[in-house]
Amino acid sequence: MAILTGKVALVTGASSGIGEATAKLFAHEGACVVVSARRSAELERVVAEIASAGGEAVAVAGDVADEALHQTLVVTAVERFGGLDIALNNAGAIGLNEPTPDIALERWRATIETNLTGAFLGAKHQIPAMIARGGGSLIFVSTFVGHTVGMPGMAAYAAAKAGVVGLSKVIAAEWSAKGVRCNALLPGGTDTPAGREFATSPEIIAFVEGMHAMKRMAAPEEIARAALFLASDASSFMTGAAMLVDGGVSINKT
Ligand code: NAP
Questions:
Q1: Is residue 189 in contact with ligand 1, taking CB distance under 6 Å?
Q2: What are the φ/ψ torsions at residue 146 (nearest 5 degrees)?
Q3: How many Cα atoms sit within 13 Å of 227 on the Cβ side?
Q4: Where are the alpha helices (DSSP H) in 64-216?
Q5: Ligand 1 lined by 42 (C-beta under 6 Å)
Q6: 157 is catalytic
């Protein structure tokens, strides 16, 4: 039997990359999935592809910095599919790449809003729905950037993603005894539209690949499988963890 049969999952940032791959894998494993991002047409494509593969999904478009979106996502999960068991708070963006003294406050705030405040707002509305269901698995997508490697030009992104790790540990301490596990997933460089936005030349691609002990970036599907582990009962004794899935960036010195 598929390992998420009977489960309801919510995935933000599901219009491309890691979120799209994970929404499709969750659906393949039997979950009903609520997918979200700003681009409706891309979301509808993902929903149609899930449906044509025999799965079930519904799209709700919006910006993760908007609290009303998160209310709607949870209400959709409950009204369409009966509750919420799994949430992958994955929506994120690197933002502008510039040295710390050059970062304008509004650009700092925009990056924090998308990557950290959006994750907090998601959790705020997802936790009560999971408690009502008797428990669940809450996952935040963080990154190796700022965790094991300080990358120049990424101050706001690194700060936001480190914030997500702290947030996940506090939520784990607050809610694990009531059945809501909470973990952070820290991918290495992944071949997605965001990854390609950063790796803009053969030299940068070679540099990023070289940071990994495996000397390559991940496919989004490889990160999706790690998300499936955290979402499923395969990780039933895991909470408050920051799980690196980084192709060995953290141990690579060459
Ligand atoms: P991606 O393909 O660009 O996906 C990012 C997703 O987030 C898209 O679906 C995008 O959809 C959504 N999104 C961005 N800003 C949003 C906003 N304000 N409101 C709602 N949705 C928003 O990139 P990805 O690499 O899969 O990134 C997924 C997550 O993995 C991110 O949190 C990223 O920081 C993290 N990550 C990526 C890498 C990497 O190397 N690729 C490594 C470590 C961690 P719309 O544009 O349609 O809104």
A1: yes
A2: 85, -10
A3: 31
A4: 67-81, 105-112, 118-133, 155-175, 193-198, 202-211
A5: yes
A6: yes
Whose C-alpha lies nearest to ligand 1, atom 33? 92
**Full pLDDT tens readout for the chain, 254 residues:** 899 999 999 999 999 999 999 999 999 999 999 999 999 999 999 999 999 999 999 999 999 999 999 999 999 999 999 999 999 999 999 998 999 999 999 999 999 999 999 999 999 999 999 999 999 999 999 999 999 999 999 999 999 999 999 999 999 999 999 999 999 999 999 999 888 877 888 999 999 999 999 999 999 999 999 999 999 999 999 999 999 999 999 999 87
- How far is the centre of ligand 1, averaged over its atoms, from the C-alpha of 69 (Å)? 17
Q: Is 63 in the pocket of ligand 1 (CB under 6 A)?
A: yes
Q: What residue ranges define each of the domains in the chain, with the CATH number in brackets?
A: 8-245 (3.40.50.720)
The catalytic residue among 26, 140, 144, 157 is 157
